Request: fold
Amino acid sequence: MSGLTTALRLAPLFARRRDGDRLTVALPLASFMVVTALVELVVGGAQAFFRWDDDLGGTYQLLAVVALVLLLVPLATVGASAARLAARRRDERLASLRLLGATTGTVTALTVLEAAATAFVGAVLGTALYGATAPLLGLLHFRGAALGSQVWLPWLWLPVVVLGVTLLAAASAVAGLRAVVVTPLGVRTRQRAGRAHWVRAVVALVVLAVGSLLVQSLGMLGSAGGVVAIVVVLAVAFGGALLALDAVGPWVVRLRARRAHRRATTVPALLAARMILEDPKAAWRQVSGVAMTSFVGVFGAVGLAFARVTDTSTLSGDERWLMQDISTGVLVTVAGSFLMVACSVGINQAATTLDRAAVHVSLDRLGVPRAVMADASRRSVMSALWIVAGGSALCAVLLLLPLVGMAVFLQPVAVVTAAAVFAVGFLAVRGAAALSARLVPGILASPERVL
Amino acid sequence: MTPILRARDLTMRYPSGSSPALDAVDLDILPGESVAIMGASGSGKTTLLHCLAGIVRPTSGTVTFASGTGPVQVESLDDAGRARLRREELGFVFQQGLLLNELTALEDVAVARMLAGVPRAQAEAEAGQWLAHLGLAGMEQRRLGELSGGQAQRVAIARAQVGGARLIFADEPTGALDSATSVEVLDLLLDAVRQGRTLVVVTHDADVAARCARTVVLRDGRVVSDWAPAAASAGVSR
Reply:
């Protein structure tokens, strides 16, 4: 009997029997639902601009693509979190299957089937969530009018997104299984968490230097290769900056965590630093989605300030709208990326809390206050976020230092607006990190299930 | 002598169980005793330990702990109060050592003191002394994955004592260890008793029980035997 046939016969049994652990099912389902809704909202919002075919339509479409690219990174983070969560929650049952004599093929097929089924149901629910929230997105004003029904995706796109999310979940489950060894006695990872190395910083500097040279040669390249060359150079420089940030991020996170560990005077601070040092890459990955957005957000805020004090009497009505819409777009993009990072953090923290259920029970038995672990988890997320968002924004501020100073002086409202979006974004992520603490009382109510 | 722990008519019913896990148990534990609680699986021995230590609240009955500041009715404390009692007055050693993966041995022990408000430097100094005392000098910076089962249990024993707990609860502390290491770990626990602490140990292992001053045997949630061969010579009466 082939592994797939066996898996198909076992799948309904596994779907029915969940050992009463509803969270094992509900959490990945909710994650895929959120991911699908976000994908459809982002793509729906971006494609609204492609319905304009006048002179400035092309400019709006270019900016929409830039915003889409900026949102893809945090969106991919949420998607990866959901897929990892779906794969991690079935570890114990995989080991039990192997103990009963199931082959690796059966285990793989069952895992992929289950991940795909969960993702499919989650994606369908997510499409319903998109239907409920898209009207809110339609309230955004561009060119002086609400986007309205333009944010609705053509209906044919919806099954494509659902299918895409399902296939990605299945692929992620296969990739996840390659990282673990499922034995009859349990599931163990093949390798230790990656260590962030200083070589990454060197690589990042080289990438940034090359990107900087390319941007400085933009005029020369533009006159030689035209608009296409400029777009290619900007894309390479932008992508290079993203890669550089990704390369150097975990290393910086580790350096900061080591410093925080040395200076920790309280148990939550000590635990938070140790949690990050355990896997700096994971700590970075969780919040890295806001890195480039924060960077661009500062540019946007400064641009917005100068746009408001620029003499617009020579501009046409459409051009004046464009100036205003760029600032709206920047704020929406920054807010969107923070929302996605908040979702990613919520999913990851919930998965970590469930994975460490036995530790929570043990700590409770030792009399450790419940707030200590919750505080430590929250600190580990927020300290990484400060490094990612704060660091990126600070880099942009340093690059634009005189202009930022002038912007604060000339148009403080614009700068305060951008700062408020950042502050609300931080609060959203902090709230998502704190949500996982709500799972702990449920774990402690039934400790026999985790020990 | 006043018991350090007194249980009266202790009954525990779980919602899923048809019969009580503990059925009207009376038990006195005197200061400086080493008491083994034995019984088959499902006899209620771990439930008894959890009730005595304030980990769970019994369905009915009382548990009185003679703390340094006076008697405490454990069963009447709320969750936070029982957690404080466990943190500040009691020590615990469980089968797996129950250490946090991320922490070093030194930090794991020091955290117990830091939670009591002791500054980190002092907490780590005290933790280092206890680890050295228990034969772990030079291993302070090792983490859970880098310690053997016996070494992890030594860390747990250090953590149970570093705060000055007078009463230590151990749940199958040798359950995951080989024979030789089991003897070493039990030696360390009984050393704590010789230093004036009280030990309550839940065990399947008759060899562990034989080395304790007293053995309480449970069956179906009831005490069926309470045997103290050393009681007469030690002046302890039942």
